[in-house]
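U., I forgot to send this yesterday:
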Amino acid sequence: MTNYQYVSRIENLMDPKGNILLNMSLQEAQARVLSGESDQVAQIDGQFAICVSEGKIVRMARSIGRPMRYFLAKKADGPCLIVAEQIHQIRSKLESLGLDDQFHPSYTRMVPAHFVVEIELIGCPDPNPQYTRFFNPQRNRWSNDIDAIGSKYIGQLAVECEKWLDCIAPDEPIGVMFSGGIDSGAVLLVLHHLILRRGQAPQRLKAFTLSVDHRAQDAAQADEFLKKCGLQMLLEVVDVPSDRLDWRRAVHVTEDYKALDIQAATMGLALCEAIRARYPSWKYLVDGDGGDENLKDYPIEENPELTIRSVLNNLMLYQEGWGVHAIKHSLVYSGGQSRGHIRTWAPAKEVGFVGFSPFALPRVIEIAEGIPFIELTDWDHERLYELKGKLVASGVEQLTGIRLPVFPKRRFQHGAVDSDLFESIFPKHEAAYRRELISYFS
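Result:
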């Protein structure tokens, strides 16, 4: 009796140009992922999503800043693995292969950030993927000295931004998605400092702030921020009429339904499209996404599933969610910012920008995870919320000599419009976003 040998096929739709590798070539990064060794993959610095294969073994790994999904289709002669950034790309490839009858969005899988996912294509039945964590930062490493921690944290942010500047042309304009908040403010001031240190013109840098119907709190905050820093010449307020806000399109672009992420993506799309209309050849946009996750600066009271103990006791809870082995982990979306970063990445990609999120890089997250949060806050919510402003402001001033203005926390979607308009635009319940997503894929 002869055993039937299945033929495996891989359709890798991941464009290598979508990676931002800061310390090695694509070939070296691919070799490290192919090895499957966590310590090898951990050496990759940057914003990346890489899929490689050898024989019937496929290995995939990514950072937070770039999504990567896969779908395992069945053919008579063997399995077909499709790998892409987004669900609609998988559907299109299945259609081109005549396999669209197998498609359903819930059958797609997201590669969770910070893990090597290994799949063995052996035919029916294919085994479950194996997960190997490659990024495992040590917690509570640092002393409780705010100035010392701030120096490490913003210092590492500057190191990563410096490497990124080395990767782009010295005359390329750079836009920062800017609200006047702590994270976008830190990114802007660090980039401005680095550009000046290189002897380059600061005019290549712009701070883009969204204002809907000329009624944005962020516009006033951004102006005040830059006025205090003596950098008002960097500000460009982008006024957008409210009829340009389309949450349904944001659902389609992100392929998700989480209310807060869709609201943020709606604003992001409007801002990116307006920038593109003004600057048709502009390429690079930088943002502060990941800063809240790193320093655990989300209102715990708004999420009934969380307590301050769960937030401070779990490794990278806001970056990864409950973890790949938890019941609540979503195979389709993953969790935490590993899922939610699509709110920032997708709008920029949709409009043709190359986005860069330095706070979401593993090297920066590693510094943040070393902070002794429990010792610094003694389990107190308010002390936790105040910590980010103190720490980031100290680090920025030590690096740049500029005192970072600190304002009360406000989400992007709330700062770009007034409250009445916000309530009139967005559905009150997540079910509406879910229905729109189901309709989109029907």
